[in-house]
Design brief:
The chain is α+β, with helices and mostly antiparallel strands. It is built from 2 helices and 7 strands; from the N terminus they run αβββββββα. The chain has a domain of 79 residues: SH3 type barrels (Roll), CATH 2.30.30. 15% of the residues lie in helices and 25% in strands.
Length: 165
């Protein structure tokens, strides 16, 4: 019989334990393939599900709430004359009647006088009608969350405080 020293025995036992521990943690090796065999075909990935958003009367989640109501037309340069005047900047100075009906005398933000007739276009709306004591405008509403796209604004010749006195 062969005699093994205690030291050699301990080294062999430790090596066997390490080898057994590594072998337990690994999966079995795949079977060897023949040299001309093709690998098995990989399964085709399942098609990704398609998603669609149904608003159902709710607001669009991709529209920023921070920019709500801001008018992009105001950021650039304005056209000259009436097309560059906002309805809120108009000061009504007088209403005149001629053979074609009424027209309004206004003062713009540049302190220049302008005349308005029904149908004239402004930067943020148009003139709906010119009445004997007032001008009615249709102002475009630039609010993505608003259901109305235009609102009616009436500018009177005399303010409510002046007509009481």
């Amino acid at each position: 019989m062969h005699r093994i020293s205690l030291r050699t025995f301990v080294h062999l036992a430790a090596g066997l334990a390490v080898t057994a521990g590594v072998a337990v943690g690994q999966s079995p090796a795949p079977p060897a393939q023949a040299p001309g065999a093709k690998p098995p075909a990989a399964e085709a990935p399942a098609p990704a599900p398609t998603y669609s958003y149904d608003p159902g009367g709710r607001r669009d989640p991709f529209i920023s709430l921070l920019g709500r109501g801001s008018d992009p037309r105001l950021s650039g340069s304005r056209p000259v004359g009436l097309p560059g005047v906002l309805i809120n900047e108009i000061s009504l100075k007088g209403i005149v009647k001629d053979q074609n009906g009424y027209f309004a005398m206004i003062q713009g933000p540049d302190n220049k006088p302008y005349t308005l007739r029904a149908g004239d276009k402004l930067m943020d709306g148009s003139v709906k009608t010119v009445l004997p004591g007032a001008v009615v405008f249709m102002q475009d509403v630039n609010d993505p969350l608003s259901l109305i796209k235009q609102r009616e604004i009436k500018k009177t010749l005399r303010s409510s405080e002046e007509s009481r006195g």
